[in-house]
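ARCHIVE CARD
CATEGORY: sequence design from structure
SOURCE FIELD: tokenized fold
FIELD CONTENT:
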């Protein structure tokens, strides 16, 4: 029996045992309430699972959704007949006060939303836009920052969310209230008539402007919009009337949160106000699409487990459905599968899912088939202005995850239930990420490893192609090559590769082609040795000897009588050109996805950065600012040659207190090149080629991670720390970023696959790590793949 059929049997619960009964209970008995088809407004839904509106900030400064928003909603509409409710979208500039949230008032916004709705409809699903006016919850400073602003900080009354806040909102005038009703109507028209939405949901919940009018804790007006229940409900009802007039009742809905404490809300008894509102709504618009209710257990963005029994939305449901008409409501209550089934079974309606839908683009399918859910990563819920897939479109679908099915061919019975290979912690390491111009399928990186498999002309041996192709065998893997000399003059080791000659470039091109054929990515590490070079090798090189140079005339060994010569300022400029040319050769001619500048491990750039090797008295030595000058100039030259998304930098620190120097370097790097592909950090536990087990707690790279990521932008870093599987999982879980593996990747060409499935690792043979000039597979391409063991 094909595996596909086995999956179908397990999901449907149709496989029978010897007694003729299903081996697994048909989940339809339980979740039938969730998967029943329903007509809601103008939509024919295939189930009752709804995507709740979720602010995600993947929008530009002009409040236009970024291109990746289309993919996000398309993914979550992949199960036909799903209702999607978008994140809240501002009805006008004046109604705002948050950065990086979408709008629906101009042509550019409408055009981008049209792409989103087209993608959702192509999947046979439906999408409503949530209409938003912020009021007092806006950030006053943001209002002043917006183009064509400042606009006033407004609300129903001059009551702040925080009683101690000195800045009070200004109460809207009656003329302004009428203007807001028109903005809601225009936004609805833009959404339905122009952007192609199936309808709109008016945001009347969570402490935003309409909620501020509803509740007496935020509305102490004395005119017809405040005081009595009828007056406080007036503006929301007028907004509904205006929207219904614009697009019709079957395309209009509203969201309410009577019991929510979020943003300074929650009046003492919300029942009279919201009962009256719903009664009037029902009378005025009996064919209204739906009512969306936030349950009392949802408080702000947390879930309450201590809700009193008398706090519930049943009074609203009773009013809304009491004549037996098919009026629909959606319940949003921090549902898991069992709670949603129970809610729909006991109370009816539809069930909105938020965080679970973030992490599971195929959530209706998973709930239907009772497939375990992916766990969401809270650190990626909000990435303001983000354009990458991290935590947004990179959560896996169930059908793309590794499923283990055990089948007994003797009697045709499936003998083991569906087993997911991945657990939550592995998922952190194996989750895809967008880094620079690459879409990685996991966070396992091949660290740069010198192997000495180049000939005397610094051309990679033919077997190097097979070596990298093997380690690219899991698609979406990032490989960082062994360090590669930028020029003859920058060298000083035999049998290491270069990137300055046509023959070298041609050999590397064969390697990048092989890596790309496997769907993976490869960066070349750019290398200048400085004082670490072997003087004898420099004299041996063709067209040499070249000088033994460094930042200063300080040897690695104080007792070494041969001192390096300090580079002149003209030679420093020459090195900049060599770096730029090497980067161009790598990316434009050899086909690399990018280059990593080697600024670690005591090589030339590291010699300039650190005071133990740099005692210059010119603009390249002395102060922190001077010592970082040459490395920053190198980055500038490389970025100018190939662009920031294809440039990266590797760091390792080892002077008495490296923090001031490296903090300044990374701050300047971030300012100059905010879109640099990544920063590669060698952890303090890596000392030379051994791992230290007694690293003082204060020695860590966390201060660099903080600088690199502190403004919330999706800047990536790689951590190289002599990891095994457990320490890599722990590092990624605690610090984020990518994990570079060296020796374990050396001995396990399919390392990401082995980590994913928790398979035993091959042990490396240290005797074959370095075989200068060898073209033999021994210790290089002869380590077995798991599939062959």
């Amino acid at each position: 029996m094909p595996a596909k059929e086995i999956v179908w049997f397990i999901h449907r619960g149709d496989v029978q045992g010897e007694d003729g009964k299903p081996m697994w209970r048909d989940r339809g008995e339980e979740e039938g309430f969730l998967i029943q088809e329903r007509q809601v407004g103008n939509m024919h839904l295939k189930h009752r699972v709804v995507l709740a509106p979720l602010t995600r900030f993947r929008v530009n400064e002009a409040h236009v959704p970024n291109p990746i928003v289309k993919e996000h909603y398309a993914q979550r509409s992949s199960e036909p007949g799903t209702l999607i409710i978008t994140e809240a979208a501002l009805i006008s500039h004046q109604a705002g006060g948050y950065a990086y949230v979408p709008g629906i008032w101009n042509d550019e916004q409408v055009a981008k939303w049209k792409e989103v709705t087209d993608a959702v409809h192509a999947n046979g699903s439906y999408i409503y836009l949530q209409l938003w006016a912020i009021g007092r919850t806006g950030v006053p400073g943001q209002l002043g920052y917006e183009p064509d602003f400042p606009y006033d900080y407004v609300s129903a009354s001059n009551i702040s969310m925080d009683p101690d806040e000195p800045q009070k909102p200004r109460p809207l005038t009656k003329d302004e209230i009428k203007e807001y009703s028109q903005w809601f109507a225009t936004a609805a028209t833009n959404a339905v008539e122009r952007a192609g939405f199936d309808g709109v949901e008016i945001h009347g919940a969570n402490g935003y402007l309409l909620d501020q009018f509803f509740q007496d804790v935020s509305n102490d007006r004395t005119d017809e919009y405040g005081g009595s229940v009828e007056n406080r409900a007036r503006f929301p009802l007028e907004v509904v009337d205006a929207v219904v007039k614009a697009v019709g009742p079957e395309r209009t809905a509203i969201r309410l949160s009577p019991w929510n404490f979020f943003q300074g809300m929650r009046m003492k008894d919300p029942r009279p106000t919201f009962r009256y509102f719903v009664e009037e709504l029902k009378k005025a618009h009996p064919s209204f699409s739906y009512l969306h209710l936030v349950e009392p257990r949802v408080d702000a963005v947390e879930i309450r487990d201590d809700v009193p029994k008398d706090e519930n939305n049943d009074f609203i449901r009773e009013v809304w459905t009491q004549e037996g008409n098919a009026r629909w409501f959606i319940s949003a209550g921090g549902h898991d599968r069992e709670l949603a089934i129970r809610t729909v079974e006991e109370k009816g309606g539809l069930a909105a899912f938020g965080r679970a839908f973030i992490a599971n683009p195929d959530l209706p399918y998973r709930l239907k088939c009772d497939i375990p859910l992916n766990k969401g990563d809270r650190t990626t819920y909000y990435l303001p202005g983000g354009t990458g897939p991290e935590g947004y479109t990179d959560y896996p679908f169930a059908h793309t995850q590794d499923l283990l099915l055990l089948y007994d061919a003797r009697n045709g019975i499936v003998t083991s239930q569906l087993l997911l290979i991945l657990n939550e912690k592995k998922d952190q390491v194996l989750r895809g990420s967008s880094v620079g111009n690459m879409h990685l399928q996991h966070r396992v990186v091949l660290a740069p490893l010198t192997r000495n498999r180049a000939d005397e002309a610094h051309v990679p041996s033919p077997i190097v192609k097979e070596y990298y192709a093997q380690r690219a065998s899991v698609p979406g893997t990032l490989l960082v090559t062994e360090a590669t000399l930028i020029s003859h003059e920058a060298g000083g080791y035999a049998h290491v590769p270069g990137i300055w000659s046509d023959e070298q470039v041609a050999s590397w091109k064969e390697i990048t082609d092989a890596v790309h054929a496997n769907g993976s990515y490869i960066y070349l590490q750019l290398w200048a040795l400085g004082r670490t070079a072997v003087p004898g090798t420099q004299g041996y090189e063709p067209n040499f000897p070249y000088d033994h140079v460094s930042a200063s005339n300080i040897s690695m060994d104080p007792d070494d009588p041969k001192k390096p010569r300090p580079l002149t300022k003209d030679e420093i400029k020459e090195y900049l050109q060599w770096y730029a040319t090497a980067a161009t050769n790598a990316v434009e001619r050899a086909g690399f996805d990018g280059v990593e500048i080697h600024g670690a491990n005591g090589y030339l750039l590291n010699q300039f950065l650190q005071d133990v090797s740099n005692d210059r008295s010119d603009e390249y030595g002395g102060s922190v600012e001077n010592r970082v000058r040459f490395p920053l100039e190198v980055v500038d030259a490389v970025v100018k040659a190939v662009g920031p998304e294809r440039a990266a930098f590797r760091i390792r620190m080892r002077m008495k207190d490296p923090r001031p120097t490296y903090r300044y370097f990374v701050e300047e790097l971030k300012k100059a090149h905010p879109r640099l592909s990544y920063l590669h950090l060698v952890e303090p536990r890596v000392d030379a080629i051994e791992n230290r087990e007694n690293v003082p707690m204060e020695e860590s790279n966390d201060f660099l991670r903080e600088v690199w990521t502190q403004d919330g932008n999706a800047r990536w870093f790689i951590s190289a720390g002599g990891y095994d599987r457990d320490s890599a999982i722990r590092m990624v879980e605690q610090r984020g970023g990518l994990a570079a593996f060296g020796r374990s990747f050396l001995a396990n060409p399919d390392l990401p696959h082995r980590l994913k499935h928790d398979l035993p690792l091959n042990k490396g043979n240290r005797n074959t790590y370095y075989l200068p000039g060898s073209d033999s597979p021994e210790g290089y391409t002869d380590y077995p793949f798991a599939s062959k063991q």
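CARD ANNOTATION: Residues 435-788 form a domain with the TIM Barrel fold (CATH 3.20.20.70). Confidence is low (pLDDT under 50) at residues 1-33, 402-428.
SHELF: design records, drawer C
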